[in-house]
Write a structure and sequence with these properties.
Number of strands: 32
Distance between the termini: 38 Å
Low-confidence stretches: none
Mean pLDDT: 96
CATH topology of the largest domain: Tachylectin-2, Chain A
Largest sheet: 6 strands, antiparallel
Bound molecules: beta-D-fructofuranose
Strand order of the largest sheet: 22-32-23-28-29-30
Shape: globular
Strand content: over 45%
Oligomer: single chain
CATH architecture of the largest domain: 5 Propeller
């Protein structure tokens, strides 16, 4: 390291030193954790020069949120990740208060451009402000533009906030223009997503507003993403301060607005609204377009409310969700784990049409590293209530209880080992379709991701349960037939 190291050089030296000390084997098998310290939102998720890149909101020096850096990891298959040196540190006048969330886009000259929110710290008589910055590099080292911030509050018409203006998602269109969506809190319409465009990534112009909460879906829209999918246009946002309504719970939500996009008139015609994920721990998702055309989404597998009370058992805190393939079916956004996960399948156990009633386990179906699909065949059965318990031992379990008559499922981790008085349950629609209900569960040590009916709804949650609790049981209030396909993961 040089005599007068820059803040970024200091972080990178700290990372090298920490990497040698970190205990092996504690991390989840396929969910990305920060190298060390704290992680929140996925940033700059992209496919660049033959590899997937995932940056993340990062505070290397503690397991709590702090001055935001960008951590970085790369992967060939979205399942195995290799750490790269920290990409951005808050070290210029434009971002001294933090390098907040943003995205990455390949430039025509082959360089990678990171676009992020620079937080400018509060001064005398001035609150902290937010504006958008760029840094360009080769995929490892990035140079911040001297023109930062390149998008300021002054770019926006009146009524938009300079204090809540963040999380640029940028892409390059076929006409060669860069386009950016960013979240803002409008004084009348509250959470909004604005669209800007630029010929070079430096010189930006406001185009319009894509959609707004208008008091319905939260007060600030964070981390927007905007992309075409199967003939529709998808707007993803992560609202703060939502009221519970329809299928949405209160607080930090993830919302998919599905509609039609008239680019010429900058008009987004909203057709449907749904939660992106119904679980206790999922926020701020971001997508990329894979070389094979798949739209893949990854989210922060946590939540601002519950993370405060979550145990800090490892030298790192927090993890990303599994990357998920998205598609639209019957007017809904659907999702399933990226198929690359199949590369981890080992020792598959199947049980075809077994009948259960009293709580029972099935031979070979246990563990905390599992990709398991349970299909409930309800035809001809008087069963109204079916209960699946995972991470089970004499003291603990995490329960998924299906109320077949109501078409609802309750995910409940309250017996999963938490000592905290925080929310532990979620109620989710789970309807029997053509005589069957399917539940696909990914278990990766301290997390459960549940996909209902082939990806109609997802429920993502962390579980604090000791890893020795690895039982799985099935029970029903009347005999019911089920099939199980369980892939152990390695
Ligand atoms: C969302 C968020 C973003 C912000 C970042 C800060 O989780 O609040 O809006 O850029 O986290 O770490």
């Amino acid at each position: 390291m040089s005599k007068n190291p820059t803040p970024l050089e200091r972080v990178r030296a700290f990372e090298r030193e920490q990497a040698m000390k970190l205990p092996a084997g504690e991390r989840p098998l396929f969910h990305l954790t920060p190298l060390v310290g704290w992680m929140n939102d996925p940033n700059g998720f992209c496919y660049y020069k033959g590899q997937y890149h995932l940056f993340y909101q990062y505070h290397p020096f503690s397991r709590q949120w702090g001055p935001m850096h960008w951590g970085h990891a790369v992967s060939d298959d979205l399942v195995h990740w290799t750490y790269m040196p920290c990409a951005l540190a808050p070290d210029t006048a434009a971002d001294a208060g933090g390098c907040f969330s943003g995205s990455a886009v390949e430039m025509p000259d082959g360089q990678l451009m990171l676009v992020y929110t620079g937080v400018q710290p509060a001064g005398t008589f001035r609150r902290e402000t937010q504006a958008q910055c760029v840094a360009v590099g080769d995929g490892t080292d990035f140079e911040k533009s001297l023109l930062n911030p390149v998008v300021r509050h002054a770019h926006l018409p009146e009524g938009y906030s300079e204090f809540d203006f963040r999380d640029p998602k940028v892409w390059r269109d076929r006409d060669g223009m860069y386009r950016m969506v960013a979240g803002n809190r409008h004084e009348a319409r509250q959470g909004t997503v604005v669209l800007l465009e630029s010929p070079d990534g430096l010189d930006w112009r406001f185009v319009g507003e894509i959609d707004a909460s208008s008091c319905e879906y939260g007060r600030m829209w964070e981390c927007p993403d905007f992309f075409p999918l199967d003939g529709k246009q998808i707007l993803l946002v992560s609202p703060q301060e939502m009221h519970a309504r329809e299928e949405f719970h209160a607080g930090f939500g993830t919302v998919c607005l599905l509609g039609d996009w008239d680019e010429k008139d900058c008009r987004f015609e909203r057709r449907a609204v749904q939660p992106v994920d119904h679980g206790l721990n999922f926020y701020a998702p971001q997508t990329l377009l894979a070389p094979d055309g798949r739209r893949i989404m990854i989210g922060w597998m946590d939540n601002w409310e519950t993370c405060k009370e979550a145990p800090r058992r490892h030298p790192w805190y927090a993890q990303m969700s599994v990357p998920r393939e998205l598609w639209v079916e019957n007017g809904r956004l659907m999702q399933r784990p990226a198929r690359e996960i199949e590369g981890l399948w080992q020792d598959t156990v199947t049980h075809e049409r077994v009948t259960v009633r009293e709580e029972a386990s099935l031979p070979g179906v246990q563990g905390r590293l599992l990709d398991m699909t349970v299909t409930l065949h309800t035809e001809g059965s008087a069963c109204r209530r079916f209960t699946l318990r995972v991470a089970r031992d004499d003291e603990h379990y995490v329960q998924i209880r299906c109320d077949l008559a109501r078409g609802e499922l309750v995910f409940d981790r309250s017996r999963g080992g938490s000592h905290r008085d925080i929310v532990h349950t979620r109620h989710v629609r789970a309807e029997v379709r053509n005589g069957a209900l399917t539940l696909r569960l990914l278990l990766d040590k301290e997390s459960v991701e549940l996909f209902i009916n082939g990806g109609e709804r997802a429920v993502t949650s962390l579980i604090p349960t000791p890893l020795s609790a690895d039982g799985i049981t099935f029970a029903a209030d009347a005999p019911v037939t089920l099939s199980v396909e369980a892939h152990h993961l390695k």
